[in-house]
């Protein structure tokens, strides 16, 4: 049997994260969501945009996940740093080509030991609600979310 690198997350784990995150969104009656899962190398592992999600939701979801992964910090901590260190966050945005979105809804995906395996970004509803869905998806895959809060 051939073995292939997953670069952190398998497609099966990414698919579980998306399905569970979307299910949580439907349970909470949220606006249509877009979910993006990045592997540890920052590449899109899986992505889904629900019917009715507005035009830029994929880019926003990607930016939430990318920003978290780029600094190894959950979106809540990135939001705090954006308030405290605007110059740094502006520079980060420039360096990242505008792809870093420092708000809740970007959640690191970790294993039990705390190793970062990737990140999830969700956009569609209020950022705090997007984050709730990301956490539900990550936990459904048997992994540990890091939102940037203890």
Automatic annotation (TrEMBL):
It comes from the Bacteria. SUPFAM superfamilies: GlcG-like (SSF143744). Pfam families: HbpS-like. InterPro entries: GlcG_carb_metab_protein, PduO/GlcC-like, PduO/GlcC-like_sf. This is Heme-binding protein. It comes from Roseicella frigidaeris.
